[in-house]
Design brief:
This protein is α+β, with helices and mostly antiparallel strands. It contains seven helices and 17 strands. The structure holds pyridoxal-5'-phosphate. The site of pyridoxal-5'-phosphate has 13 residues, from helix 6.
């Protein structure tokens, strides 16, 4: 029985659901883990997560397909990415298979919160891990908590997709050889000031350039860039300090295998940006957000696709990936994981 929620008015906010998966790491190993009802965590004031930010997270969605199944999209890639993040943060990897099982458990236990097919809303899942024991001298924690909670969220675009305006940031998102390629909370803490500055100036997001030379496109605070060339190629920036977006990696396959496009994953000089026909941001939240313009210190780059609607190639990419996710277009092997 679906919860009494007005799915059409849902935004992107936290709504507490009935169950979350919790697993604790003690004495060098993960305990059994299971579903719990308490949404609060009680920790010592000196817990490593509070003092030294030993924390990382993931994000993915569960939703109804056309044929009435509840599914998730490529959760194994979230599991693997979190394991990669953990390695960089001296945290214990949570086993990939156990992660995918935990995702299924949380979705199944909260199935009443999965928005109906066709609403555009979905159940957002937030796996995360924190260092929980008290640490005052700087060192990694030895006890950890892995948790997955979920919250129903509305469609990213309400009342139509409208291209957004970006600015080129004077701040850096990630250092060379830093933590840009992992999903650490600390990467977001330092992005809060730049994003608020951008908002105050009327921009939706920042385009960050590479910190070393400030000549190459990296990403925004929470989404990768995709560009379409005038001769119909998909180009997406490559750098060791970009977070490997699962949406971006999926779109590269969709472009090549479903739409017959050439795909280039390579360094993208900022100087090349005005030559592209279309520009978008990609991530789990919106799949693709079209970018209408980028302001470079007062000089505005406007893409030929314009400021009013998503360009034709990004629209095709968006519709194809959405169709695959919704079970309307046949998916590559393993992309859609059925919960029930
Ligand atoms: C999570 C995230 C993305 C998007 O990744 P998806 O797997 O597509 O959701 C992009 N950039 C950053 C910095 C992120 O944290």
């Amino acid at each position: 029985m679906s919860k009494n929620i007005d799915w059409s008015s849902l935004g992107f906010g936290y709504i507490q659901t009935d169950y979350r998966y919790v697993c604790r790491y003690r004495d060098g190993q993960w305990e059994e883990g299971g579903l719990e009802t308490d949404a609060n965590i009680t920790l010592n004031e000196c817990a490593c997560v509070f003092q030294y930010c030993q924390a990382c997270f993931e994000g993915l969605k569960a939703y109804y397909t056309k044929d009435g199944r509840i599914v998730t999209f490529r959760p194994d890639l979230n599991a693997q990415r979190m394991a990669d993040t953990c390695a960089r943060l001296e945290m214990p990897a949570f086993p990939v298979e156990k992660f995918v099982e935990a995702v299924k458990m949380v979705v199944e236990a909260n199935a009443d919160y999965v928005p109906p097919y066709g609403t555009g809303a979905s159940l957002y899942l937030r796996p995360f891990m924190i260092g929980t024991n008290s640490v005052i001298g700087v060192k990694p924690a030895v006890e950890f908590e892995f948790r997955i909670f979920c919250t129903p969220v509305g469609p990213y675009f309400k009342g139509g997709v409208k291209p957004i305006a970006l600015k080129v940031s004077d701040f850096d998102r990630a250092a060379p050889h830093g933590t840009g390629s992992i999903k650490a909370g600390l990467n977001y803490a330092m992005s809060l000031h730049p994003i608020m500055e951008a908002h105050r100036e009327g921009f939706a997001e920042n385009m960050y350039l590479d910190a070393a030379t400030r000549t190459k496109v990296e990403e925004t605070g929470g989404a990768n860039f995709i560009f379409v060339t005038k001769d119909n190629k998909l180009v997406t920036p490559k750098s060791d300090s970009i977070l490997p977006s699962i949406t971006r990696r999926s779109l590269m396959i969709v472009a090549e295998k479903y739409l017959g496009m050439e795909v280039e994953h390579r360094e993208v000089p900022f100087a090349e940006v005005p030559d592209f026909a279309e520009c978008g941001l990609c991530g789990t939240a919106a799949v693709i957000s079209p970018v209408g313009s980028i302001n470079d210190h007062g000089k505005e780059i406007v893409f030929p696709s314009g400021k009013e609607e998503m360009g034709p190639v990004l629209t095709k990419l968006y519709n194809t990936l959405r169709g695959i996710q919704m079970g309307e277009i046949e998916a590559p092997e393993g992309w859609i994981v059925t919960v029930k």
